[in-house]
Design brief:
about 220 residues; Ribose-5-phosphate isomerase A; Ribose5P_isomerase_typA_subgr; Ribose5P_isomerase_type_A; 4-stranded antiparallel sheet; about 25% strand; 6-stranded mixed sheet; binds ribulose-5-phosphate
Length: about 220
């Protein structure tokens, strides 16, 4: 019988444990796959001195399991060794769409100070070209209409999500974009006034992809 999407997520969550560096601060992302990873992580809690989390949701889950969660500003120059997070889509160049769970900005910040980004995803997330999943864009609330118009000018169908981010901002979901050049689009949308960040992780993509498939977990490295 075929494995469910949740079972595939659990498999990659388990496989990600071997990327945890004992004694080093760990970066933890957000989402249902990461929730499963945090559950697995509890078994090696004594090896993780502290975590930096990308959302209130993950912080609560980590703290409930007894992990220490520190603010990124408390971190020294050494940064984070490994950051483990999910994705909504990932392409062959390891560029991703993220932000389905609304934590894109903090995820991008934590990823930016991490040496290795390990992406954990079920097989449905691997695509040839990004864009089937609506692209999330976090915006300052007063800029929502202006940014929506600019996304529509690119050919997207845009929806304002009924959601407020951990940063007190709004999210626009831009559907229907075929993203052939993720780095260029990330740079362009990030340059618009009012955009906090776009959920394209191309300039800082993943380094390792653990993909949950029917044939087991496949590992891809950049
Ligand atoms: O970017 C994210 C949250 O902002 C998640 O990583 C992404 O939405 C994948 O989530 P899930 O593991 O639930 O499929």
């Amino acid at each position: 019988m075929a494995l469910s999407q949740t079972e595939l997520k659990r498999e990659v969550a388990r496989a990600a444990i071997r990327y945890v560096e004992p004694g080093r601060i760990l970066g933890v992302g957000t989402g249902s796959t990461v929730d499963l990873f945090i559950d697995e992580l509890a078994a090696i809690r004594d090896q993780v001195p502290a975590c930096v989390s990308s959302s209130v949701r993950s912080t609560k889950r980590l703290e409930a399991l007894g992990f220490k969660v520190i603010d990124l500003n408390e971190l020294g120059d050494e940064g984070i060794g490994v950051y483990i997070d999910g994705a909504d889509e990932i392409d062959p160049g390891f560029s991703m769409i993220k932000g389905g769970g609304g934590a894109l900005t903090r995820e991008k910040i934590v990823a930016s100070v991490s040496k290795t980004f390990v992406c954990i995803a079920d097989a449905s997330k691997k695509v040839d070209v990004l864009g089937r999943f609506p692209l999330p864009v976090e915006v300052i609330p007063m800029a929502a209409a202006a940014v929506k118009r600019r996304l529509e000018a690119l050919g997207a169908t845009v929806t304002l999500r009924d959601f407020t981010t951990d940063n007190g901002c709004s999210i626009l979901d831009a559907a229907g974009l075929r993203i052939e050049d993720p780095k260029a689009l990330e740079d362009e949308i990030n340059s618009w006034p009012g955009v906090v960040t776009v959920g394209l992780f191309a300039n800082r993509g993943a380094d390792v992809l653990l993909l949950g498939t029917e044939a087991g977990v496949k590992t891809f490295e950049r």
